[in-house]
Design goal:
Layout (H helix, E strand, L loop, with lengths): L1 H14 L4 H15 L9 H9 L6 H14 L2 H13 L5 H14 L5 H18 L4 H11 L10 H10 L3 H30 L12 H23 L5 H22 L8 H39 L2 H12 L3 H16 L4 H18 L4 H14 L8 H10 L3 H7 L1 H16 L2 H9 L5
Amino acid sequence: MAWLVLVLFILASLAGGAAIAYVTGAAAVLSFILADSSRYLAILPQRILSQIDVFTFLAMPLFILAGELMNRGGVTRALIDLAMVLVGRMKGGLGHVNIAASVFMAGISGSAVADAAALTATLVPEMKARGYSATYAAALTAASSVIGPIIPPSIVMIFYGALMNVSVAALFAGGLLPGLLVALGLFVMNGILARRHGYGTGDALAMPPAGRTLVRAVPALFVPVIIVAGIVFGVVTPTEAAALAVVAALLIAFFYRTIEARPDGATPLTLLLRDIRDGLERTAVLTGSIFMILFAAAIFGYLIAIRDVPQAITDLVGSAGIDGLGYLLLINLVFFVAGMFMDVTMALVLLVPLLVPAAIASGADPVHVGVLSCLNLTIGLITPPFGGCLMIVSATSGVNYLRLSLAVLPFIAIEAVVLVVLILFPDITLVVPAALGLVE
C-alpha cells in the first residue's frame, strides 16, 4: 500500500505539471523512508555529488555548445545543400535529403533534440512547398533525428560511458554501423511511402551548385572525423575532444559568416559574437536541466545501491533460467516501454544501473548493451504519448500532435526492426570497435 501511495504521488505530480527533476527527487526521498532506509539520508548530499563529479560529464555541455554554434553559424544549411546534391534527385528526394542531413548533423551535434529543432525549421516548409504533406514531412524529420545520438559524437553515449564505466571511444565506434543501419531503414521506408503517396519527383528540385556546396560543407564534415578519430585512437579524451569541437565550431561559424551575404550590414565578428551569446544561453539552460535530472536521479541510484537491487535482479534472472539473449530481449522491451514515458537521461540513470549489470553478468558485451540501450531509449523520443522530439517537431511545424504521432508509427516500426537485428547480431555493433582494438 505504501508503494502504491508513492506511485500515485508521482503520477499526480507529473499530471499537475511539476518539473520531472523535482518529482524524482521528492519520490526518491520518500522511497528511502518507505524502504526503512531513512538513516542514510544524512550522507545523501555527499553521495550524490560524488556520483555526478565525473570529468567525462564536462564533455556534455561542451558538445552542446559546439552544436549550438554550428547550427547558428550556417552549418545546417551547408549540410542540407550537400545532402540535396547527393540524394535530392531520387524519388522522394527531399525525404532522402532529410535523412541524409540527419546523418551529417549527427556527426556535429550528437543530440536528437537539436537535430529535430534545426531540421524542422529548415526542411519541413521546403517539403510542404514541394508537395509533401506537412504531417509526413514532420514525421520523417522526427524519425530521422534518432540518428543523431547514435552516430558519434554522441552526448547520450558520453553520459552512458561515464555512468557505467564503459569506454566512450568503444561506444562511439560501436554506434557507427547501427546509426547507418537506422538511416538505411529510413531510406527504404521513405522510398516505399513516397512511391505510395506520389511524393517528390526529384527532377523539379532546384539543385545547389555541386562545387560551391562541397567547398562549404567540407569544413563541417572534417569536424566529426577529427573529433571521433582523436577519441577512438586515444589522442584526446572525450572532454578534450569536446573543447576542440567548440574551437572548431567558432572557426567554422566565422568562416560561414565571412562568405555569406549580410544585408543588414553587420560584420562577421558581430554576427559571431551574437551566435556565441545565444549559444551560451541555450547551453546553460540545457546543461542546467540535464544536471538537475542527474542530481535527482542519483538519489534513486544510491537507494538501488544500498539495497543491492542489481545483484538481486541478477540472482532472479539466474534462478528463472533466462539466458543471455532472452534477458537482453527482455530489458530492451522494458527500455522501449520506458522510453514512451521517460526522458532519455532519466531512463538511463534509473534503469541502466538497475538492469544492465545482470545482462553483462549473463555474457552480453558492455559496449553492445550500451549502444542498444542508447538507441532504444532514443527511439522513445519519437514514441507516443510523450515523445520529446515529437513535441518539438509538432510545436515548430504546427502539425497536430495526434496526427504526427500516427504518421510516425511506420518509421518507429522500421527502427524497432533495426533494433531487433542489432540485438540478434551483436557483431554489427562490435565489428568496428574490435577492428580498432577497443573490445576483445
